[in-house]
Amino acid sequence: MSKPFTLTVNGREYDLDVPPTMPLLDVLRNHLGLKGSRYGCGLEQCGACMVLIDGSAEYSCSREVGTLGGRSITTVEGLGSAEALHPLQQAFLEEQAGQCGYCLSGILIAAKAFLDRNPDPTRAEVAAALDANLCRCGSHPRILRAVLKAAAALRHEVV
């Protein structure tokens, strides 16, 4: 049984009438049209579905939407726009840090949460922070470089 409620996503309030047990990922993709977060495993194992919930990177594939009233959700679409990319998005483009790209939205979200906590990380710290994201394709070294580059840009250092 569903009961109408409001969900705040990317700074915008949405009135929803969906079952409270519906996974957040399904609401984002199928009800709000936000396709950036991906379904990978459905078991909190791959990180493709990660979103920020009150600034913390969390899996959306198994998170019941009814538990999120009053919380702020940010998807990869909320990081920046085509006209004003977030420094992470810009660095990923510059470093060509994607192969197929399926995992990148989750990695960008995890990296954002991590850099908010640690603005001057080492390469090893970045690698550890992204460990919950399953992708280890051929571009993984470029992903690590992109996060370090974004960290420097966020600190207003010349890269």
From TrEMBL:
Recorded superkingdom: Bacteria
UniProt domain 2Fe-2S ferredoxin-type: residue ranges: 3-79
UniProt xrefs under InterPro entries: 2Fe-2S-bd (IPR002888), 2Fe-2S-bd_dom_sf (IPR036884), 2Fe-2S_ferredoxin-like_sf (IPR036010), 2Fe-2S_ferredoxin-type (IPR001041), Beta-grasp_dom_sf (IPR012675), Diverse_Oxidoreductases (IPR051452)
Xref: Pfam families: Fer2, Fer2_2
CDD domains reported in the protein's UniProt record: fer2
Gene Ontology molecular function: 2 iron, 2 sulfur cluster binding; metal ion binding; oxidoreductase activity
Keywords in alphabetical order: 2Fe-2S, Iron, Iron-sulfur, Metal-binding, Plasmid
Stretches that traverse the bilayer: none
Record PANTHER family: BLR6046 PROTEIN (PTHR44379:SF6), OXIDOREDUCTASE WITH IRON-SULFUR SUBUNIT (PTHR44379)
Protein name (database record): Isoquinoline 1-oxidoreductase, alpha subunit
